[in-house]
Design goal:
With 268 residues, the protein is mainly α. The chain has nine helices and no strands.
Length: 268
């Protein structure tokens, strides 16, 4: 597999995550309408540039979206020309295929701005990031069962921090909420990758636990948006559920490690 492709894929995935965080920061700062509901234009010189600091936040989000979009087109080209894993090809293709609808939804969040459009925009962005995360997981060497257990332990350590940052029990600054999403997306992606790697090892139970933990983490992030009338304490319940699921994965992987170690000892 081409190193150039792998580096561009990893960089584009990181750029997609950064784009989502900038978008969330923009929404929490209330900067989404500062360009006078014009899209893709703004309120500065010739409508191409921002007029003030607040509109600069929204303008930066749009500029970053354009750059990430072009990077993903480059990833798509290299995926079909420089590597042979069909899973990676189709995961990247799916991510790029979702871009037009995401662009339209992004425009509608400026011109219409309803809870349903906001939810669809967040959902589509998450699907794009999930496809890219899967492609990344398939381009790196699959961790051993012990490595998967270490991943699960690190995820378990991250959950209490994820819970502390969500602001469901008290008001927190926008920067803290952005940090919450940064950690939450990393946790979500790590659990999703863990499910794919567990599948590669034939560990059906661990795969299910990782996948469920990833799904609940994403639901927590949706609730934390505070735009859909959902009870914010659901994020606290969700974090506990995720921790239980991860604990189950750790226990399952520990049993597999011991069984594998005993089998290797008997073989010798």
């Amino acid at each position: 597999m081409s190193r150039r492709f792998r580096n561009l894929l990893l960089g584009s995935t990181a750029g997609t995550l950064l784009l989502m965080l900038v978008g969330l920061y923009t929404a929490y700062k209330g900067a989404g309408l500062t360009c006078e509901q014009r899209w893709p234009l703004c309120d500065g010189w010739l409508g191409l540039f921002p007029a003030n600091l607040v509109s600069f936040i929204e303008w930066s989000h749009r500029l970053l979206a354009m750059l990430v979009g072009f990077a993903l087109l480059g990833v798509l080209y290299l995926a079909w020309r420089r590597q042979d894993d069909r899973r990676v090809k189709w995961a990247v293709t799916a991510a790029v295929a979702l871009l037009p609808s995401q662009i339209i939804l992004g425009a509608l969040t400026v011109t219409e701005f309803t809870a349903l459009i906001t939810a669809a925009h967040f959902f589509t962005a998450s699907l794009i990031l999930l496809c890219l995360t899967a492609a990344c997981a398939w381009t790196v060497e699959r961790p051993s069962v012990g490595g998967l257990r270490t991943l699960a332990i690190l995820a378990a350590v991250a959950v209490p921090v994820h819970l502390a940052l969500d602001g469901s029990l008290f008001a927190v600054p926008v920067s803290v909420l952005t940090g919450y999403y940064a950690l939450s997306f990393l946790l979500w992606g790590a659990l999703a990758a863990g499910a794919l790697w567990a599948h590669g090892h034939g560990l059906a139970r661990a795969r299910l636990l990782f996948a469920l933990g990833s799904a609940v983490t994403w639901f927590d992030m949706l609730v934390a948006r505070r735009k859909f009338g959902l009870d914010q304490t659901l994020t606290d319940v969700g974090a506990v559920v995720v921790l239980v699921l991860i604990a189950g994965a750790i226990w399952t992987l520990s049993k597999r490690s011991k069984t594998g170690g005993l089998a290797a000892t008997r073989a010798n």
